[in-house]
Amino acid sequence: MMLHVAVCVKQVPDTTQVRVNPETNTLIREGIPSIVNPYDTHAVEEAVALKDRYGGKVSILSMGPPQARESLQKSLSFGADKAYLLSDGKFAGADTLATSYAISEAIKKIGETAPVDLVICGKQTIDGDTAQVGPGVAYRLGFTQLTNVDKVVEIDMGARTITVRRHLEAAYEIVQAKLPALLTVVKEINEPRYAKLTDLMAALEADIPVLTAASLGLDVNRCGLKGSPTKVKKIWPPARRAGGEVVNASDLNVAVKAFIEKLKADGLLGPVASPCGPAPTASGADSPPAKAVVTEKSGPDPKEGEVWVFVEQMEGKAARVSWELLGVGRKLADDLKTSLCAVALGNNIASLAAEAVSYGADVVYQVESPVLAHYRTVPYASAINALAKKNNPAVLLMGATVTGRDLASAVATDLKTGLTADCTDLAIGETGLLEQTRPAFGGNIMATIFTESCRPQMSTVRPRVMAMPAADTTRQGRLVKVPFTMDEKDVPTKIMEFAKEDLTGSVNLADAEVIVSGGRGMGGRENFKVLERLADLLGGVVGASRAAVDSKWMSYDHQVGQTGKTVRPRLYIACGISGAVQHLVGMQTSDTIIAINSDPNAPIFSVASLGIVGNALEVVPALVEAIGSAKSYHEASAHGGA
Fold it and tell me: 368 in helix, strand or coil?
């Protein structure tokens, strides 16, 4: 039996070149080069590698304007067999729901002659960064959904199964799933090959059929802007925090003195945190004990129009982002004059109800079953969809984590509603609609989005973006236990192995109070050792820019920015990082930012509390020496020496 793999690729603008017209607040598209979405090149490579391993064929699909043929030609040159362009003016303005509809129907068409066994997508695209289309396509096709895959372990065509490894927050799992399936893959899965000149020339001559709404028999009311429940209210250039003092490191003593004084002024010179941060849970933070009073099924029945927050948990411990969402959810519910409800799924999770109430929930919907012990898309989405169809909430919020992104798109697709990813601000507007603000195009623009008529209005929010609310253990709330009857045999995925990663001695960006990050200006992997020394002295961890990670100087789990981690430490030190907007959106809410860069015009200085103009390879060793000496002096004084 031959393996047929379909790969979705997208031609995207180079987000480093995207700009906004300050007068009209519209995108300046002229002169912006287009590239193949970087994650999609890894998807193509994996598909071709699987063809080499198991035999079969690879079909490539791209949705976009006629110039998207270039991305298809490049994919063909890597070893794909056939390419299709999904292009029609009726697709213009599509959000992720409408996009997944068109793509899923195109895949059905491609599979008419040879059924598609496997669809592979990149984890996300760098223009939208939603990670929503792949899961939406999987749901529409009825394919098993497997996101954030960093390894394909085995495909058994006889048994019609695929086994993969999924990388989670601070954990990984080996999952066996039924075919057909859809994977979204991360960059770590492989290293894309280089095309041969002869293959490039052949790809330029390849016949690439164009699929349109008419040729696929699509309902045009479900395509493009017409079929998109989310609408853009406005876009604008992102605001920047005001920069502080900038000193020149031509005199290292002056730079070191300014650095030390800034740390002292902000109370940062003493021990701040352990190098690895607190022991991690699902999102890297322990949940504080809470003993709010929760009464089962007391009070009136639930009403329509509630604000819901999905409580993500791992082994009974809640992800910090869930409590952060209850904090912002409390304000939304109060503005709507409705109840704030936590939705908790799992097994043996009774303790979560009191915690959720202490962080602001009025009602906790608790769904317990052994089938829900570990997160899997089908049972979790089925439970939430059934509950949402019964109760009709106005708003549903989830964390923009691996689990949250996987689940949110599946839920939104089934409920046929709008979903806005990676929001940085949520508020109820004058019309009573949820206004959802998020960065787009690599953080070069901000957009406010709303869902006018579909419900619930759905958003995902990254950890550490919203403030953590204070727990109030005097609050009282209501517990509603929701029955769940799905049998294990009805779940298309089986977790073969689950393990938390050993974070001893490794990075835990999510909860670090001090982060020392390096960029292209560090010059190479060996120069990150001095950053590690500085981080150790300050009780912090080492981060990295996308450029440093792409250069293989640091692993992806160190990456800060829109395509990495969003962080909110007390102290962020940027060394040799120019300050591309993609990086700034991931760290500019840090309490104190100190930037070291040789370019006095580097954008990083515009957000820095203290800027040091100088070569990081000269400045950082001087800082290490000064802080080391200061710590040695204080330690000796504490023990009666010096």
Answer: strand
Q: Which helix (H) or strand (E) holds 621?
A: helix 616-638
Cα 46 from Cα 6, distance rounded (Å) = 11
Q: Which of 611, 615, 639, 634 is nearest to 537 (CA)?
A: 634
Report the DSSP pairing between strands 445-451 and 230-236.
Answer: antiparallel
Residues 6 or more apart whose CB falls under 8 angstroms from that of 486 comprise 369, 371, 378, 379, 382, 383
Q: How does pLDDT run across 366-408, given as a tens digit for each residue?
A: 999 999 999 999 999 999 999 999 999 999 999 999 999 999 9
Instruction: Give Cα separations from 620 to 265, 594, 598 (angstroms).
Output: 20, 12, 12
Question: Which tokens go with 564?
Answer: 């990495």
Q: Using CB atoms within 10 A of its CB, is residue 1 exposed (0-12), middle (13-18) or buried (19+)? A: exposed
Is the CB of residue 579 less than 8 Å from the CB of residue 595? yes
Structure tokens at 200: 């490039």
Strand 395-399, strand 307-311: pairing? parallel
The total number of residues written for the chain in this structure: 642
Strand ranges (E), 425-530:
425-428, 434-440, 445-451, 457-461, 476-481, 493-500, 514-518
Beta bridge partners of 4: 57
Alpha-carbon Rg of the chain, whole angstroms? Answer: 25
- Residue 380 and residue 345 in contact, taking contact as beta carbons nearer than 8 Å: yes
Collapse the DSSP code of 396 into the 3-class scheme (helix H, G, I; strand E, B; otherwise coil) and give the result. strand
Measured between its terminal Cα atoms, the distance across the chain in Å is 78
Which residues does residue 82 pair with via DSSP β-bridges, in sequence order?
59
The tokens describing 58, both together, are 């690879």
Give the per-residue pLDDT at 499: 83
What pLDDT does 631 receive? Answer: 59
Cα gap 284→506, rounded to integer Å = 13
Give the closest residue to 620 by CA, choosing from 557, 549, 527.
Answer: 527
Between CA 516 and CA 188 the distance in angstroms is 23
CB atoms near residue 484 (< 10 Å): 17
Kindly report the three-state secondary structure assignment for every residue of 148-216: EEEEEEEEECCCCEEEEEEEECCEEEEEEEECCEEEEECHHHCCCCCCCHHHHHHHHCCCCCEECHHHH
Assessment of whether the complete model's pTM goes beyond 0.85: no
Handedness of CA 367, 368, 372, 375 (dihedral sign): positive
Q: What are phi and psi of 45, to 5 degrees?
A: -60, -45
pLDDT of residue 299: 45
Q: What averages of pLDDT result for each successive group of 10 residues across the chain (642 residues)? A: 93 70 58 84 97 96 92 93 95 93 97 96 86 94 96 96 91 94 94 89 92 97 94 81 84 93 83 38 46 62 84 94 97 96 96 96 96 96 96 96 94 96 93 92 81 95 89 94 95 91 62 92 95 93 93 90 84 94 84 94 92 95 86 52 46
Q: Which of 517, 419, 399, 425 is nearest to 239 (CA)?
A: 425
